[in-house]
Amino acid sequence: MVKAEEQARKLAAFATLMLIGAAEALAQENRAQAGRRIVVSIPDRSLAVIESGRVVKVYPAAVGAAATPSPSGTYRVIQRVPNPTWYTKGRIVPPGKSNPLGTRWMGLSLKGYGIHGTNSPTSIGQNASHGCIRMYNRDVEELFELVAIGDPVDLYGERTAELESVFGVSGGQGQAGAAQPMRGGMAAGQ
């Protein structure tokens, strides 16, 4: 009888932990503001945060190299990891100055791709990554605080009129974006 009661208590504790974890994940997903999204212009090598149709901030970025291009499409932020560990074939790099992911990782709904910092700041503004979106560590730390699980991330492989309203006619590569209204809006996945 005592053993059954102990097992019931362990099961109840486990169920409570699972409910707490599910509630935390749901709360974090609900924090994703309906009007907030991240827009990445691969040709401009820039990333913008847009809230309610207004450009909040534009950051310079590195995108995929010719051999390993960044994908186009609409994805979601599904993971937020401060001080990530980098795992690659036969090698593990703990958090720190030599970590290629820098100080933050925001995983996308496309497995293996994300937005992250870097240990190679000279790569920013270049086509240099394995398909991920790299940012200066100070910028990715700021972005990390603005973004929630569930936020949409639109990656555009070609310039459009809508991108011009965000990044400028000649591309806003790395220019700080003042809050500006978007003309015409952007449809997800264009």
Explain what this protein looks like in three dimensions.
By secondary structure, this protein is an alpha+beta fold. It folds into two domains: 1-31; 34-181, L,D-transpeptidase catalytic domain-like, CATH 2.40.440. The protein has helices at 2-31, 137-146, 161-167; strands at residues 36-41, 46-51, 54-60, 63-64, 73-82, 86-88, 91-93, 104-108, 114-116, 127-129, 133-134, 152-156, 180-181. The strands form three sheets. It has a nine-stranded mixed beta sheet with strand order 11-9-8-5-12-1-2-3-13, sandwiched between helices. A two-stranded parallel sheet has the order 4-10. Strands 6-7 form a two-stranded antiparallel ribbon. The termini are far apart.
Brief overview:
Helix content is 25%, strand content 30%.
β-strand percent reads 25-35%
Helix-strand makeup class: alpha+beta
Share in helix: 10-25%
Our Rg estimate from Cα atoms comes to 19 Å
Instruction: Profile the largest sheet.
Output: 9 strands, mixed
The CATH superfamily of the largest domain turns out to be: L,D-transpeptidase catalytic domain-like
- Cα separation of the termini: 63 Å
Q: What is the CATH topology classification name of the largest domain?
A: L,D-transpeptidase catalytic domain-like
Number of helices: 3
Order of helices and strands: HEEEEEEEEEEEHEHE
Low-confidence stretches: 172-190
Report the oligomer. Answer: single chain
